[in-house]
Amino acid sequence: MAGVSINELPESILLEVFMHLPARQLLLNCRPVCSLWRDIIDLVTLWKRKCLREGFVTEDWDQPVADWKVFFFLCSLRRNLLRNPCAEEDMTSWQIDSNGGDHWKVERLPGPHGTEFPDSKVKKYFVTSYEMCLKSQLIDLKAEGYWEELLDTFRPDIVVKDWFAARADCGCTYHIRVQLASADYIILASFEPPPVTIHQWNDARWTEVSHTFSDYPPGVRHILFQHGGKDTQFWAGWYGPRVTNSSIVISHKMTRNPAPSTAHP
């Protein structure tokens, strides 16, 4: 019996076969095989079905999607890029940039003269002292799975969030700085609002800080996240701002509709 080429199968069957292959294998190994495979792998139908299969969208999804292939990869990569954001591993993964006063410390919520966090899953926080305490993380986006064309052509939103609170019996000053940098660490965009000062005898409530980087310049390869502060009374111990539940998430929401991507991750 003569051999039968897989390319003689109906396109609907090939589409079904490709549906069950890992996305990166499709683009890196299958798409270059021939023009037929390339055309099928570039079909919107394939990537929309893969999104449905992975639960990224539902059948009644009605929001416009500029590129389903890119949408699939952004959804599959979506996560908090900051490690140990809620102090569950003490100071692990954080670079200590300033360790003034009695240094950084981890405490359990609600803490002395504190309040519970809005999300009950968050159990701990980092707390600062009477001189400046700053800590940071540097994120390598390529190491996290984001390839160059995705970052430079589609430029998905980069959503930054942080939470801080004061002790009710002490004032404090809170700082945050987030920078987008190139491969050689040239700063391309920055979020650095003025420091927030909370006066003594406050309600100790937790406050969320949020910023979205959109339409930033091409070339972003790193994200530097830094936050911290100090108390305003210069009291020994840990009376400065408390921080927890920080996050950096690459969002699938895009602001424009570029031509369909053919780049490999």
Automatic annotation (TrEMBL):
Please indicate if the UniProt record lists Phosphoprotein as a keyword: no
Q: Extract the InterPro entries matched here.
A: F-box-assoc_dom, F-box-like_dom_sf, F-box_dom, F-box_only, Galactose-bd-like_sf
Task: Enumerate the GO terms in the molecular function aspect.
Answer: ubiquitin protein ligase activity
Supply the alphabetized keyword list.
Ubl conjugation pathway
Q: Name one GO cellular component term.
A: endoplasmic reticulum quality control compartment
Q: Which residues form the FBA domain?
A: 71-252
Q: Which GO terms describe its biological process?
A: ERAD pathway; glycoprotein catabolic process; SCF-dependent proteasomal ubiquitin-dependent protein catabolic process
Pathway per its UniProt entry is: Protein modification; protein ubiquitination
Classify the source by domain of life: Eukaryota
Gene3D superfamilies in UniProt: 1.20.1280.50, Galactose-binding domain-like (2.60.120.260)
Q: Where is the F-box domain?
A: 3-50
Pfam families registered for this protein in UniProt: F-box-like, FBA
Q: What is this protein called?
A: F-box only protein 6 isoform X1
Q: Which organism is it from?
A: Camelus ferus
As recorded in Swiss-Prot or TrEMBL, the protein's gene is named FBXO6
